[in-house]
Amino acid sequence: MKHFEEKTTNTQSIFNGKVIDVQVDDVLLPNGKNSKREIVKHPGAVAIIPITQDNKIIFVKQYRKPLEKTLIEIPAGKLEEGESPDITVLRELEEETGYTTNQLQYITSFYTSPGFANEIIYLYETNSLEKVLEPKPLDEDEFVELMELSIGEAEKLIATQEIHDAKTMYAILYLKNKGMR
Amino acid sequence: MKHFEEKTTNTQSIFNGKVIDVQVDDVLLPNGKNSKREIVKHPGAVAIIPITQDNKIIFVKQYRKPLEKTLIEIPAGKLEEGESPDITVLRELEEETGYTTNQLQYITSFYTSPGFANEIIYLYETNSLEKVLEPKPLDEDEFVELMELSIGEAEKLIATQEIHDAKTMYAILYLKNKGMR
Question: What range(s) does the Nudix hydrolase domain occupy (chains A, B) (predicted)?
Answer without folding.
Answer: 40-171
